[in-house]
Structures are given as structure tokens and as C-alpha cells.
Amino acid sequence: MSVAHEEAQSAITRLSAVRGLNQLPQYYQIQYHEILAWAYDAAGNLSYAVNERIKLDHLLSDNARQTINRRNLWLNLTRLSTVELNTMGFEAEDNQELEGWVKLAQIARQSEPRLSAQAYQGVLAQMERWQQAYPRHPANSLLPSPLSSVESLLQGSPHQIALLLPLSGSLAGPGNAVRDGFIAAYNEAGAPQRLAIKAYDTSAGDVTKLYQQAIANGADYVIGPLAKPEVTAIAKMEHPVPTLLLNDTEVGPRDNAYLFGLSPTNEARQVAYRASKKGLHRVLIIAPLGSWGDDVVNAFSSQWSAGGGEVVEKLTYDEKTDLNSAIRDFLHVSARLASEKQYHVATGSKNRGANAKRRQDFDMIFLLAYPSTARQIMPLLRYYFAGDVPVYSTSTVYSGNTNTMQDKDLDGIIFCDMSWVFSHQLPNKNWPESLNSYNRLYAMGMDSYSLATELNRLILFPAMTVNNNTGVLYLNGAHQIGRILAWGQFRGGVAQLTSET
Fold first, then answer.
1. Would the pTM count as exceeding 0.85?
2. Is there a contact between 43 and 15 (Cβ–Cβ < 8 Å)?
């Protein structure tokens, strides 16, 4: 059932007519409350969405799904107006669980950007009193544990921000995209003139020395570096000031450092969760050879298995792969049937029962590919009788710019991306697909500025919507800042937003 905005009210009406809900198997009760919560959210009935998510929370037994549900519940609360939130608080006097959520949200309203470190200490004290009043409340699972562990991480607003980015050399394009987005957000926010910005070109020197130089020059907040080897080098160091690292690394960052990047592994986990929630169970995986493909597939497979899904088979490819024969064999289509298919295409006659002529042991495909390869694979999937199977992918499948003629071949692919990309078209850059789109890197630069002024809120509370509407960010216990992604689908050669989360 679609719960896109224009259909939300219809979904609410149909679900409200369901009778005997408590007699249904637990799986269907979970589906009911989850879909109804999304429908209320899409229709703007946020208080109703909150109540549905509270009911849903009591049905979920999987910790990962509980965390996602509670985080979405929290986001519904943060989007309520102050009047609506206070009204909900009055109505919750006989419901301690709802009352606890509302009171925590009211505390969060006091944690505005650019508060002093001392003011945030006061917010922290209120949160400690909240925990004493609600020691077993489910929201506790989303808060720092113990709260005192983050006290030393709370900082005042920065006075000087250092940008450690590649501004020359082979990565100058991505580095300048991040800087452009940061400066745009800085100008849009009307930042105080006393906030100084200094850029350091990581392509022109040793990154560890540049980091130390930035600190010596007075930086009290550092953004970067961007390249993975340099991120690893800085992650191993001591961090006297908050440091936002713009890529993944296997090295766990020390206190005061945070990982924030365009993470395909995080996207893959969200794809697995989304597809599992849609009732899909058996997946075929198509992915590139190499460590990058392995990392993303492993992240997907881990989340997929945790949700009870089965990986039926995996096809890997590289630039030498004959995709036509590889896809045909992968789908168990014989050479004879392929010839028959070619005949029917040439003559325009119907090939009845075509779907029964391919393997039947899967109900979805996870495709990891850049646009140029995906444009070859999708027509082959349709040609070899798998056009009726949902295909999911990560943001790598989308160039970030509208190209209707070429992207018609991608029609049907469901993928996740930051919501900002669907509504903003920036100039396309002529650089390799593997460097990601200018759009996304620009948006990451915008987010980096928002985090510089709002990091304290993210440290204390479960999640936040960043001011420039690039999406919802959250901080986990491993000092990784994650993004709750939006969902889109290619239709008529255009990537269209289907839901915000």
C-alpha cells in the first residue's frame, strides 16, 4: 500500500476500517501500526503518528527495528509546534510513556544552536532529572549512557573553523564541492562576523601536520579531511577540539572526533531494512568485484540476515564481464529460451509464460552499480524475464543530475539518497563516477556547517533535522553521524522522490 502524501488519507481510511486487529498474527499487527504511522506522518497528523509508534514499539522484539522506530517517533515529536507539543503533554497525564516522550522533547526545545557550553550543562542537568523520573522509559535507549559521559564533549559555539580539504590535485573537484556547500550554508545562516573560516589544502602537505597547524592557529573546530587514508591518519591522533572526519575508516575515532561521510555501507543497511519491511525475503545480489563491492554487500547481507532474509546467490562483475551472458546464466535462462526471446522480440509476438522460464527462488534484486553499468544491467534483467521483480540500489545508481534519455534504462529501480538531491539540480561535473556527485558533496558541506553549530544537540538527543533540509542526522555510540535517507524511484527516466524517509 502506498503512503505517498497524496494517498495518505486514503491509507488512513482503509486501515481505520480494520476490525479484530488484536486477533491478527503479530507480523500483521506490526505492519498495520507501521503503515498507519507513516500515513499519519505523510498527512501531517504528527501526534497520531506518535501514538501509533508507541503501540508499534510494544510489538517489536528486534533491537535494530526498535531503535529505528523510536528515532522516527522522536522526529515526529520534534516537528510538532510548541503549542501542539504542550497540548499533547496535557493530554498525556494518564499515559506515563507518552508523557515521558513529550517532556524529553520539551527539554530538547531549549537546546537551540549557539548556546554556550554552560547553558548546555543546564540542559544536561534537566535530562538527568528526566532520567530519574523515567528510569525505564524506552527513550533512554537513544540517549548517551551514562549522560555524564558526554559532559566533557559539550562545547561552546566555535570562533574559528578549519577546513582540511583537497583543494588541488586529483581530488580538487570533490574537495571544492564540500567547501562550496559549507560556504553557502555559512552565508545563508547569517553567521556572526566573529566566526573565522580558514581552509587548508590537504593535497599540498602532510595532513597530520596541517591538523596540528590548524589547532596552533586557533581553530576550535575542524572539518575534514576527506580522503580515506587521511581520515584514518587523523582518527589515530588526539583531538583537542571537535573534529568532523568526512569519510569512513576502520580506526575507531577517539573522543571529540566524529565520522561523517557519504557512506554506501550505511545506505546498504537501510536498503536491506526497507526491503525486509516490505515483506521481501529472498534476494539475488549483483555487485562489482573488489573490496568496495565486498564491503557494501557485507553490510547489506548482515542487515538482511538479521531481518530473517536469505541471500540466494551473488553475481560479481568487472569491466571485462560479458553482462549479457552473465545475467542470462544468473537468472537460469537457457540458450534456447534466450533464442526464443530474441525471436519474439524481432517478430513482435507474445512470449506467454515468460517469467516461468527463469529461476523462481527470489523475490527481489539488490543491484550495486554506478549509472553507466546499471543502464546496461536493467534492460538485461527485463529482457531475461525479471522485469516484474523489485530492484533496490544505493545512491550510487543515480548521477545526481537529470538525464532523461539515458536514465530511461533505469526505470523501476528503487534507491535511497539524501532528500536534497531530489529537489536541487547543480551543474554536472565531468569527473569519474566513483567520486560521487557534486550535488551530494555540496550538500555534505552544507551539513558540515550545520553540525559545527549544532553538534551539542546531536550529542545529547536522538536525532535532528538539519536546517538546510538535506535530511535527518543522528549520532551513534561509535561516534558515527548517520543519515536517515529518503527514497526515490526512476520513472520515465527521472529520479522521483517517493517518501522522505
1. no
2. no
Please give the Cα distance from 91 to 85 (Å, whole number).
Answer: 10
CB burial of 33-61 (b: ≥16 within 10 Å; e: otherwise) equals bbbbbbbbbbbebbbbbbbbbbbbbebbe
Q: How far apart are CA 224 and CA 175, in angstroms?
A: 10
Residue among 416, 391, 398, 357 nearest 493 (CA)? 398
Q: Return the number of other C-beta atoms located less than 10 Å from residue 87's C-beta.
A: 14
Beta bridge partners of 417: 486
Query: What is the rounded distance in angstroms from the CA atom of residue 141 to the CA atom of residue 65?
Result: 13
Q: In terms of Cα–Cα distance, which of 138, 222, 81, 235 is closest to 462?
A: 138
The amino acid that residue 302 corresponds to is S
Evaluate whether 219 touches 161 at the Cβ level (below 8 Å). Answer: yes
- Which candidate, 349, 316, 343, 337, places its Cα nearest to that of 385? 337
CA angle 151, 157, 158 (to 5 degrees): 110
In angstroms, rounded to a whole number, what is the distance separating the alpha carbons of residues 26 and 40? 21
CB 450 within 8 A of CB 221: no
Domains, the chain, in order of start with CATH, read 5-153 (1.25.40.650), 160-259 (3.40.50.2300), 266-320+360-435+487-499 (3.40.50.2300)
Angle formed at CA 414 by CA 410 and CA 417, multiple of 5 degrees: 105
| Amino acid letter, residue 264 | P
pLDDT tens digits for range 212-251: 999 999 999 999 999 999 999 999 999 999 999 999 888 8
